[in-house]
Design brief:
A hairpin with a 2-residue loop joins strand 5 and strand 6. This protein is 37% helix and 17% strand. A 4-stranded mixed beta sheet has the order 2-6-5-4, with helices on one face. It has a 3-stranded antiparallel beta sheet with strand order 1-7-3, with no helix packed on it. The chain has 235 residues and is of the alpha+beta class. It is elongated. Helix 2 packs across helix 6. The protein has 2 domains: 107 residues, no CATH class; 111 residues, no CATH class.
């Protein structure tokens, strides 16, 4: 489905061909879609939203992808998984480092030598706005050793959905779960239409589809392996 198909479907379910408004040239349906997409990005975590990206580590902060919503797995190019830490904990770790000490689970030699063999580098990450903070980080000497090669961070994450303004524009979620956009857009028509008795039905359909899509993602992650309790970080 594309934006044009979604718009036509919303009009069809509302039994309208347009909206009359005292505001000149006001088209309510794009607003319904924008508000629905806002809810989708907050509520939905489906497989079609998963993306992978890499970023060279050249400092303690690296930029997050512009469509980043939430991390699934963050690893160094060496394969080491980075563990999420709240910002307060990252501050405690940095303070410990600057005072000349190291937490018991960090090898200071490895942390200070990201080009060493076996490679060291950061062990933890946190999110600060549109940046990812890494710890511990130590810059290579200037000039760097001959055997030094920069490492990178590999991010697997849920990507924000942004439906463009063109009639032929689409998103991954709109292609995989068009009902989420349709029911979500119809729900957002409630303030405009006031007391439409169908609102509760649309709300239920939206919530049900989001729940099933999220559950499918969770089941897919556990297939073929023993279930292990794990906390998922929210960036």
């Amino acid at each position: 489905m594309t934006r044009a198909g979604l718009t036509n479907s919303i009009f069809a379910w509302l039994h309208r061909v347009n909206f009359r408004s005292p505001v000149p040239d006001f088209d309510a349906v794009p607003t319904f879609i924008d508000l629905a997409e806002q809810d989708i990005n907050l509520d939905l975590r489906a497989r079609c939203m998963v993306k992978r990206g890499t970023q060279i580590v050249d400092g303690p902060y690296v930029p997050l992808p512009c469509d980043y919503l939430e991390a699934i797995d963050i690893r160094l190019s060496t394969g080491r998984e980075l563990l999420y830490q709240p910002r307060a904990r990252m501050g405690d770790l940095l303070q410990t480092q600057t005072q000349g000490g190291w937490p018991v689970d960090v090898d200071p030699g490895a942390a200070m030598l990201p080009w060493s063999s076996p490679p060291g580098g950061p062990r933890y990450y946190s999110v600060a706005g549109d940046l990812m903070e890494l710890w511990p980080y130590a810059a290579p000497p200037d000039p760097p050793p001959d055997n030094w090669t920069p490492y990178s961070v590999e991010m697997v994450y849920f990507a924000k959905q942004t439906l463009g303004p063109g009639d032929d524009d689409a998103t991954d979620v709109l292609g995989a779960f068009p009902g989420v956009y349709l029911w979500g857009g119809l729900v957002q028509s409630a303030p405009f239409l006031r007391d439409d008795p169908r609102i509760a039905t649309w709300q239920g359909l939206y919530q049900s589809l989001v729940f099933r899509a999220n559950a499918t993602m969770e089941r897919g992650n556990s297939q073929g392996s023993r279930l292990v309790a794990r906390f998922r970080s929210v960036g």
